[in-house]
Amino acid sequence: MGIRHRWISNLFSLGRVVFVLTAITFLVVSLYRSWSDLLTYEWNLDYLSLMASMALLLGVYLLGGLGWSLTLRLLGGRLRLGSMVSIWMLSLIGKYIPGSVGQIMSRIYLCEKKGVAKSATLISIVLEMGLVVVSGEVVFLASLFFGGMINLTSRIWVYLLVIPLGLVLLHPTFLNWSVNFALRKLKKGPVETLNLRYKNMVALLAFYLFFWMVYGVAFYLLNNAVHPVSIRELPTLTGIFAMSFVIGFLSIFVPAGLGVREGVMVLLLSFYMPSSTAIVISLLSRVWSVLADTLCFILSSALVYYIF
């Protein structure tokens, strides 16, 4: 049984590696094929849209910190809101370490210094990851409807399948099982039954759906700064960014999903714009994110130093 378990585990690990290599290969091939177009690409940036997208991105990061803070409070973490948001923003730089170990450990360490149990912080991070992934997939699915990629009949069946599934995934019974499963994978002991109310989880999911909507507007403005797009494309671009982010986010052995997120983004954007433009936007979105991460790190470092 043990050999079979290791064989299945190795098979899944191989599958993840193949997927990441495929995404990165697609990005490299796309770059190669579009290289001549990129060299002659006419940069006609809309600086107003670019600055607005960066300002809104910083607002998105504040929402991200708030979402984790609300999750931690449900688990008994009673820190000031400003302290929790600052800790969340400071930990962002840790995602550039493979496995996001730095991001997780920095939050646990800083929260423990303020009297929050390690287990509460770790569980809040696991729940946050789950909520980000589930809500991002819901947003991508919804965007397919607006993009006309799913007909009316298919929409009905998708809703009939997805809505009950989402409600099951949010149920405290399933959450208890999934959190303990994640903790075992992280070599941590299982926890007792989490005292989570169903209505609180539904409220958190609604919050993260709003989080993705704001993120989508920021990404739309970034796109508009490079390649003018109609406001009608906002839902589609939001879905593309959400799915690209989620797939990169799940590629935990790649620092910050580097290359994976861009590969998926180019693939999806290419359905709506020239490949050369899609590549420019995907690469610019990485610079956009890194710049926001850096600004948040600098600001939160000063705030955390003051708090501690």
Mind explaining what this structure looks like?
The chain has 308 residues and is mainly alpha-helical. It is 78% helix and 0% strand. The protein has one domain (2-307). It is globular. It is built from twelve helices and no strands. α3 packs across α4 and α10 runs antiparallel to α11 (260-269). It starts with a helix and ends with a helix. It has helices spanning 2-33, 35-39, 47-74, 81-91, 101-113, 118-146, 152-169, 172-185, 198-226, 234-250, 260-269, 275-307.
Mean pLDDT: 78
Separation of the first and last Cα atoms: 49 Å
Q: Shape, please?
A: globular
Radius of gyration: 20 Å
The arrangement of helices and strands along the chain is: HHHHHHHHHHHH
Number of helices: 12
Helix content: over 70%
Question: Which key terms come to mind for this protein?
Answer:
308 residues; mainly alpha; 12 helices; globular
